[in-house]
Amino acid sequence: MFLKQLSLLNYKNLAQNEFEFEAKLNCFVGKNGVGKTNILDAIYHLAYGKSYFNPLAIQNIKHGEEFFVIDALFEKNNKEEKIVCSLKKGQKKTIKRNGKAYEKLSEHIGLIPLVIISPSDTDLIVEGSETRRKFIDSVIATLDSNYLQLLIQYQKTLSQRNALLKYFALNQTFDADNLSIYNEQLSQSGQLIFEKRKDFLAAFVPIFKKHHATISGGNENISLHYESQLFEKDLLPLLDDTLSKDRMIHYTSAGIHKDDLVFEIDGFPIKKFGSQGQQKSFLIALKLAQFEFVKNQSKTLPILLFDDIFDKLDAYRVQQIINMVNDDVFGQIFISDTHPERTEDIMKQTHKTYKLFPL
Fold first, then answer.
1. Cβ of 55: how many Cβ atoms within 10 Å?
2. What is the pLDDT of residues 125-181, one digit of tens each?
3. Cα separation of 214 and 318, whole Å?
4. Which domains are assigned to the chain?
5. Which of 22, 54, 327, 353 has the fewest C-beta atoms under 10 angstroms from its C-beta?
6. Contacts with 278 (C-beta within 8 Å, 6 or more apart), sequence order
7. For residue range 320-330, what is the model confidence (pLDDT) as tens digits?
8. What is the pTM of this model?
């Protein structure tokens, strides 16, 4: 997978920009606020149909303008793919592949394998379980379109069940037969989602630990494990067990929407006991594991976006990342950094072709 050309119009703070990229390393350098991260986000937008940093699509239009357009030319499996993503105020976002618009944006997911590593990934550590579930789901859905449909179905049924519970409470009534329909539907999609998450993490965790050992030198005792109520009991009996509670609180308290990933260092939460450097190493290892997993499953080298990657990493950890680049672990890489001299020095150490874009 190789991004050859990129054209931006009215995307965030970028009025009009055009780029032609190197097949290996591309670096955007400049002060904070000039748009380095926004260029990376535009590339992410082309892959996933949304911004990594701001899911409200209309807020990605440059202030004072009516629309944005992201236009790119990729090469995949020796074939060119022209992808155009655009949004005009008051209209739906469109994504076109080689001139033809998708009927559903979800049909586009998976065409462009891509992984981003960003300072905002700290949300995976500091925010609630929903953020970590979204990480799991985004990786699986990139490779499995059926999984995305299961998630959509589960969320729809969950909303309907919650609405019914609220209706029961407001009207002081109860209909077990009506509720059982939603229980069956939740169980069917929820059990499948749980099994897919469980299988994914069984394959993913060893890859994560391998990358963490490489970055940290193997000197840190870290763990990542999957928490789910469904390890104890299937979803249908769980819903029966929690019925009294659900009727009291008016929403569904059991299910895969309560799943979580637990991040630990030396047996304690990394959120509380990990230094900034340790947390960043953990997150980079997490994303590099995502990269390798997607690469293995898709048989394609994903594009890798490094946003402000070298900040808060010591020289040893930076060197380990350079070594990975030299070992041809990665395909095309995009990097943003505030220090042009540091970036160029690191690029020279990779012994790979690179291109700098001062902003």
1. 9
2. 999 999 999 999 999 998 898 998 999 999 999 999 999 999 999 999 999 999 999
3. 11
4. 1-113+300-359 (3.40.50.300), 127-297 (1.20.1050.90)
5. 327
6. 216, 220, 265, 270
7. 777 777 777 78
8. 0.89
